[in-house]
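Risk register update: the risk of archive-format incompatibility is retired. Evidence:
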Amino acid sequence: MTTTQPDRGPAAPPVVTREEWQKALGELLAEEKKLTRALDALAAKRRRLPMVALSDHDFTGPGGPLRLSDLFQGRSQLVVYQFMDTGPDHVCPGCATLIDNVPHLDHLNRRDITFAVVSDIPIDRLRQLASRFGWAFPFASSAGTTFSADCGAGDSFGLSVFLRTPKGIHQTYFATARAGDRIRFDFNMMDLAPYGRGETWEDSPEGWPQTPPYEWWRPRDET
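Archived output:
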């Protein structure tokens, strides 16, 4: 492959002919197709997971007391993000930036799925965050309950999925750590871009602009 490198400016991918680029792109897309099929197979396994019964926990919502069953909003499936409580004067930047990526939920709702945020943050503080960030989805405080621990998040954060049947509420899935990556629009777009997420842990060519992880993570209204 014959390549040239820009004379000035930051590091960048080599410049090649369109034919050479199309060949390299085709090879990458073939790998992406394999990964897509692998993700389909993983989703099929996820749909076959057993489930565990969970009590109908009592929460405090923006309008007063409510229960886990209320968060379903009449649907049978519920996805809950447990937003980490990092104290009265601090907002978890990872949780805040993840929730900033939550889109309009009409399409999700049409498939019998509700999305909600639950947190051990007291409800008054949670109301402030909802107003500050313009949350348009259901949320509730689990402060003083065992909900976070029962789901697997503990004092941290996590993504839980629940199914409501005539026999009650059941948890079908839980994940934490980088499980949130797959629901973040920003990360998925960055992974398509030449410089990626621009963090030092990434496998990028020499000279690519990078910063330490989390350094740039902050609520959108903080500079």
